[in-house]
Amino acid sequence: MAIIVPSSCSRKPQASATADISQQQLMERAAELCQYIPDHELRAGSEAYLTKDFYAVLDTMFNHLPEHEAMDHEWLYYFVTGNGGTIADYEVASVDITDATHATATIKVRQKWENGSFDETTDIEEHQLMMEFVDDQWLLADFDNHKADCIRHIAETR
After folding, report:
1. pLDDT confidence of 4, banded at 50, 70, 90?
2. What CA–CA distance (Å, rounded) separates 116 from 131?
3. Per-residue pLDDT tens digits for 19-52
4. Does residue 11 have a pLDDT over 50?
5. What number of other Cβ atoms are within 10 A of residue 114's Cβ?
6. pLDDT at residue 89 above 50?
7. Cβ atoms of 3 and 109 closer than 8 Å
8. Domain of life of the organism in this record (predicted)?
9. Which of 11, 52, 105, 106 could form a disulfide with 129 if both were Cys (CB 3.0 to 4.6 A apart)?
10. How far apart are CA 97 and CA 9, in angstroms?
11. 118 DSSP assignment
12. Spatial CA neighbour of 21 closest among 106, 122, 97, 108
């Protein structure tokens, strides 16, 4: 996984949660959180890296609805890589601190094959990774607004 961290990042005024972390550290944390973006499944151990509410929504989607429910709505399984065969290669392009406890990272995702070579047929896609400062750490709070999509889907199936 390549993590490229540019020196020029958009930044709004700092507040208490952000005062103790540099822009570089926040970008590194965003890169770490990329590994917990659900892709085909909810990764084991992801609970420690997601906000409680985002984890609860994803856990319901991936582990507590009939399997065909998620498969009928492919985006639930394929947040980043599409229909299998590739691995997401993440690059944090920027982090925008929106307030004392929220930040949004713009990440670029490129697909590479399982052998490590890049898939030249797909474009680099931009995604938004939302972070929230909870209990003295930055956690993954949403990804491309999929949390709201999942909540709607859960409401429809119950």
Report:
1. very low
2. 29
3. 578 889 999 999 999 999 987 788 899 999 999 9
4. no
5. 9
6. yes
7. no
8. Bacteria
9. 105
10. 10
11. B
12. 97
What does pLDDT average to over the chain? Answer: 82
Torsion over CA: 74, 75, 77, 79 (sign): positive
Written in H, E and C, the secondary structure of 69-110 is HHHHCHHHCCCCCCCCCEEEEEEEEEEEEEECCEEEEEEEEE
The domains found in the chain, sorted by start residue, are 16-157 (3.10.450)
Beta bridge partners of 133: 138
Q: What is the pTM of this model?
A: 0.81
In sequence order, which residues have a C-beta less than 8 Å from that of residue 118 and are 6 or more positions away?
A: 89, 110, 111, 112
Answer left, alpha or beta for residue 136, where phi above 0 means left and psi between -120 and 50 means alpha: left
Which residue, among 91, 98, 75, 80, has the nearest Cα to 148 in the 3D structure?
75
Q: Please tell me which of 40-44, 65-69, 111-115, 136-140 the model is most confident about, judged by mean pLDDT.
A: 136-140
Cα–Cα distance for residue pair 98/134, rounded to 1 Å: 15
What kind and span of H or E run contains 17? helix 16-19
Q: Who's near 83: CB < 8 A, 6+ residues apart?
A: 74
